[in-house]
Amino acid sequence: MDATERMSPAGPLPAGSLPAGSLPAGSLPAGADPADASPTGQDPAEADWADQDPTDRDPAEADPADDGRRGGRLVGLALACHPGPALAVTALACALSFGSGLGGPRSALVTAAVLTGQLSVGWCNDAYDARRDARAGRRGKPASDGTVGTGAVWTAAATALAGCVPLSLACGTLAGTVHLAAVAAAWLYNLRLKATALSWLPYVAGFGALPAVVALALPGGPAPRWWTVAAGALLGFAAHLADTLPDIAADRAAGIRGLPHRLGDRGTRLLLPLPLLAATAVLALGPPEPLDAGGAAALAWAGAAALTGPALGRRWRKAALAAAVAVAAVDLALLLVRGVAAG
Predict the structure, then answer these.
(1) How many CB atoms lie within 10 A of CB 118?
(2) Angle subtended by helix axes 319-338 and 273-285, to nearest 10
């Protein structure tokens, strides 16, 4: 067959001829505007939309995939703040504020200051650890798995910290200073102390500061009762052990050598009940009044939870942390009954 011929179902066609209904490349149907031609064959309206600056597009024409990615980034940013611990500490501050008689507006102010501080700490932690978490293949870390950019997480941390400063100082100069010192200690944990033998210190400072901040925010700024600060510090130490216990092996592989990692799984598990029991004992026995039935019941409950949680840790990795939360709930009840400020 001659190379200039083409095959069709009806047989060969002369060179240059086309099947019925076809048009030569670059030609237009009769009556079409030449300005509407697209060299790629793409619909001109689609080509214009694709070439348009995304910021100039009509919101009604937005690409659904863009909305999905944006929603994923927002969810990732929310998860990167460590929402569980952040909300738990904020709820504790809120309960202490209302229980101590601060009143609605003042309690809301303390709660907002604590929330912004916790958000800044959580975002700082995820952003700073992003590369290490990625190398270790740790799951549930949005800044390391690409769900949200590290730069965005750092920006969120800085923004929350900037909001925390005026909110804290609005609670009172001394109360605000104590709270900002606790937030600074938490940032120092993220950036330096986490991998040292002093990893427990920011937890002790942060939890011990909570009842002090609430007391100092009261009218007249009364001094906090010593046993409330001591109990908070002991709970902070226990929280550090319980929070780290399930991840000791993974953290060690990533090069983290905080106090629990140096003690090891067994040493941390044996030590954990002591600060939990001590915190409850300080709250029950610290006040000058004799031990009442409520204090004795709290001690019994704390003892059971403190011993059971670490013992179940090999079957449920979060058992020790759950026990710490249970003891903290009892201690919070004791704090609310006895008050945080010296009378």
Answers:
(1) 25
(2) 10
Q: What is the dihedral of CA 51, 55, 56, 59, to 10 degrees?
A: 110
Local structure of 269: helix, strand or coil: helix
C-alpha angle 307-313-319 in degrees, rounded to nearest 5: 75
Nearest CA to 150 out of 67, 77, 85 is that of: 77
Which of 168, 213, 324, 177 shows the shortest CA–CA distance to 260? 324
Output phi, psi for 12, to 5 deg. Answer: -65, 145
Task: Annotate 6-26 with DSSP letters as a single string.
Answer: EEETTEEE-TT---TT---TT
Q: What angle do CA 307, 309, 315 make, to 5 degrees?
A: 130
295-335 pLDDT, tens digit per residue, is 888 888 888 877 776 666 666 766 776 777 788 788 888 87
CA-to-CA distance for 256 and 159, rounded, in angstroms? 28
pLDDT digits (tens, 9 = 90+) for 182-195: 999 999 999 999 99
Spatial distance between the Cα atoms of 213 and 283, rounded to a whole number of angstroms: 18
pTM of the model: 0.74
Token readout for 178 is 């104590």
Among residues 151, 127, 136, the alpha carbon closest in space to that of 79 is found at: 127
Q: What is the dihedral of CA 71, 73, 79, 82, to 10 degrees?
A: -140
The set of residues, in sequence order, having a beta carbon less than 8 Å from that of 165 and lying 6+ positions away, is 180
Those residues whose C-beta lies under 8 Å from the C-beta of residue 324, and which sit 6 or more positions away, are: 235, 238, 239, 242, 272, 276, 309
In sequence order, the β-bridge partners of residue 7 are 12
- Say if residues 154 and 219 touch (Cβ distance below 8 Å): no
| Cβ atoms of residues 280 and 327 within 8 Å | yes
Q: Which residues of the chain register pLDDT less than 50?
A: 1-67
First to last CA, the chain: 110
